[in-house]
Automatic annotation (TrEMBL):
SUPFAM superfamilies: Carbamate kinase-like (SSF53633). GO terms for molecular function: aspartate kinase activity. Residues 3-159 form the Aspartate/glutamate/uridylate kinase domain. PANTHER family: ASPARTATE KINASE, ASPARTOKINASE. Coiled coil: none annotated. GO terms for biological process: homoserine biosynthetic process; lysine biosynthetic process via diaminopimelate. Belongs to the aspartokinase family. This is Aspartate/glutamate/uridylate kinase domain-containing protein. The lineage of its organism: unclassified sequences, metagenomes, ecological metagenomes. One of its GO terms (cellular component) is cytosol. PROSITE patterns: ASPARTOKINASE (PS00324).
Amino acid sequence: MKKTLVMKFGGTSVGSVEAMEQVAAQVRLAREDWPQVVVVLSAMSGVTDLLLTGANAAAAGDEASSGVTAAALRETHLNAIEVLLRSEAERELTSERVHTHVQEFSALCHAVHVLGEASPRALDAISSLGERIVVHLVAGRLRELDCAAIAVRASELIRTDAHFQAANPD
């Protein structure tokens, strides 16, 4: 069985392009000593709060605010891509993934707006988008550094119970 190193980086560790560059360098260095490295990332600084603010505004009847939030979310991550990723192919691939997740955010906020409430399940789906976006940026940078990397959703690896907002591994 291969030894696996799990590295966890919080929001400030991926809060800027410079910080993401440091994360990629640390992971690449760790790969020299470990046959397998799993990287767990938080959202960029402030992104989770931004997502929840947009969701709560939609639930309160202000769907326009969630549109402003979607634009800010897109801009934050696309700006980071332009600085972090050097290869046009990685930029395009990662930008497409950002657009997909921003569209998902907009669709979820629309549903919350129509229902007039943000259920715990909806809030979990919305608040996880920051992590689900940033993994693509860091994975892209790692690939540019010739370090094999794929972005994987936590839900593909960890099963939890249905206690949304307070779930435990199942």
